[in-house]
Specification:
The protein has 193 residues and is mostly helical. It is built from nine helices and no strands. Helix 2 packs antiparallel against helix 3, helix 3 runs parallel beside helix 5 and helix 6 packs antiparallel against helix 7.
Length: 193
Amino acid sequence: MGLAGVFFGLLVGWIIGSQETNGRQPAATVAAAAPAQQQPGGAPAPPPLDEARVSAMKTVAQQNPTDAVTRVQLGNTYFDSGRYQEAAEWYEAALKINGKDVNASTDLGIAYYYKNQADKALAQFGRSLDVDPKHAKTLLNVGIVRAFGKQDLKGASEAWQKVLVVAPGTDEARAAQQALDGVKSAHPEIGKN
């Protein structure tokens, strides 16, 4: 449980920092082991859904059946409001149009995780990595879902090690290193072969 607290603080700080620049960044990172629709540790509730904005975007999406960008924006809007089922539906719709959008694919995996579907999230991250095997945010999320959704600290550590290799010096690498340090501190046997 203490390990979860360490990860939670690390990852929430990373998410907030990555999302504050120019609005929502693509391919967010999951927050921690919190079940869907629950606000862990007294975290603020997600902002309410901007219904007028959603309505306008839905109109654009209906008028443009090949517009993946608007569908991703709808997914992001629902995701940011904590409405993960609707977010997943819009990300899925976007990926039917542009299956190579690694950020939308990773966001879809995160939405699955928040819907308590860890296996489905990992499968979606696998599709993201098929598109871009070095996508640091996907690899970081693989580690998070393995650690919290599957209680697989060895698999999580392996994913985080990959982040260090493919994206040294990035925010993702710093988050991965902190997560690895937390695992090593709480479970020194992890990583020993």
